[in-house]
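Exercise 3.2. Students should predict the tertiary structure of the chain below and write it as structure tokens, then compare their answer with the key that follows.

Predict this chain's 3D structure.
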Amino acid sequence: MIYLIFLQKKKMDLIHKYSNELEKILNHSPFDLKNSLKKICVLLQSNIVHFDWVGFYFNNDKKNYLELISFSGAPTEHKKIPYGKGVCGQVAISNKKLIIPNVELEKNYLSCNINVKSEIVIPLFVDNKNIGQIDVDSNSINPFTESDVKFLEFVCEKLAMKIKTLKNEHG
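Answer key:
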């Protein structure tokens, strides 16, 4: 019981624990989006025990698919995902976060790795437009908490602010 309380406290501190490192990545000069995304993926995947794979997909609206820009974890063959396919493709259409506690029970699931048991996808909005998403896979069933959701939303909000600033600076 005490161990479970400790784990919950640890998860609640994710924003506090990683916000400084996230800010350093996003404020590095000169800024390189792809490199920064990779650093964020590595930061999350290597430090949060149940984040076994972390990736960023961005929308290609002209071709109606998501494109994997950066990731940390096992290689995946899913570099391009059509809108509507799998968990990521569903989020691209719905514009809503999606948490799948057990991927074996999800009918519209694209298997990236036989060890994956659950997945969470949070959309990334700039100017109220869904431009992409952060995708996290776990090798555990149902590990994601509300604290994980809040933290990943925080990551997306910070990233969106940086992208918007760059967009405004470069027209």
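Discussion points: The beta strands are 53-60, 65-72, 80-82, 98-100, 118-126, 129-138. The two ends are 54 Å apart (CA to CA).
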